Amino acid sequence: MRVIPNLNALRMFEATARYQSFARAADELCVTHSAVYKQITALEEKLDVRLFKRVKKRIFLTPQGSEYALRVRAALQRLGRDTEELVARGHLTSSIEIAVPLSFGVELLVPKLPEFCKKHPDIQVHLSVRNRPFLFSSTPFDGAIIFGTRAWEGTTGFTLLREGTVVPVCNEAIGESISTATDILDQPLLHLTSRLDDWERWAAANNIHGDIRVFRGLRFDQFALLTSTAIAGLGVCLAPLVLVERELAEKRLMVPIDTPMHSDRELLFIRPTQAAPSDALMAFQDWLIGAYS
C-alpha cells in the first residue's frame, strides 16, 4: 500500500526544513507554532522515519530528513508549475502541438506566428524541433511541417512552399576568391547529412566534371548549423534561396557565382489521417496555407 502524506503536511515540512524552525515556518504559512509541530510529528509517525533531531529548543534535519526535504521541495515546485500551466490553458479554447524543422521555424514560421496568434487568441501553439521522421502515434504531435517530395504514409499533406532554386552560399571573405564554378570546389564544402548527394547533383546541373571530391568537408544534421558554419567562414554550402533570404539581405551570406540547381523538394504541412483533426488544428492548417501560398 502506498504511503502518501497529505499536501498540507508536506508544505509544513518543506517550510520547517528550509528554516529549521517551527516558529518561522508557522509565520510563513500563517498558522500557529503548535499546528506545525503537530503536522510534523504526525508525518514522522506516518512515515515511521525521524525527520528532525530536537536539541533543547532547536531542531536539525536528520540525514533522512535532509534527503526527503530536497525531494519534497522539488515535487511541490513541479506541482506549482503544472498547476499554473493548467490554469493558463483553462482560459484557452485549445492548444496544438506542432513539429517543425529548426530552419523553417526560425527563418519563416516564428516571424509570421504573431499573425496567427492575433487572429486566433484562443489557440495556443506549441512548437518542437524535429528534423527526422517520426510516428504520430508515439508522439504528442497534432501536425508537422516537413521538407520532402510527398507526405508520409498515414498522413495527408498540403504544400506550403517549393524549394525551387538552390545556390552555393558563403561569407564575403570566401566569396571574393571565387570567380568560376570550379573555384567553389577548391573551398571546403559543407554538407547536410540528409542531402549528401546535393553537391554531386549541383555539379551535374552545372556541367562540372572531373575529380569533384564532393563528399569531403564538414557535415551537419540541421540546416541552421550548416548556414551558421558558412557564415563563420568554414566553407561553402548549398541552400534553397527561400531559406536564406534574410542572411543574403543582411550580407552575412552571399551567392559567389550564379550556378543554381533546381530542387523538387517541398515544404509540407502534414497531419495524421487516423484521427479527426481538431478545429484548432484546422484553423492552423488554413492559416499556414494562406500565409505561404
From TrEMBL:
It comes from the Bacteria. The chain crosses the membrane at residues 223-244. Residues 5-62 form the HTH lysR-type domain. InterPro entries: LysR-type_TF_proteobact-type, LysR_HTH_N, LysR_subst-bd, WH-like_DNA-bd_sf, WH_DNA-bd_sf. PROSITE patterns: HTH_LYSR. One of its GO terms (biological process) is DNA-templated transcription. Keywords: DNA-binding, Membrane, Transcription, Transcription regulation, Transmembrane, Transmembrane helix. One of its GO terms (molecular function) is sequence-specific DNA binding. Belongs to the LysR transcriptional regulatory family. This is LysR family transcriptional regulator. It comes from Allopusillimonas soli.
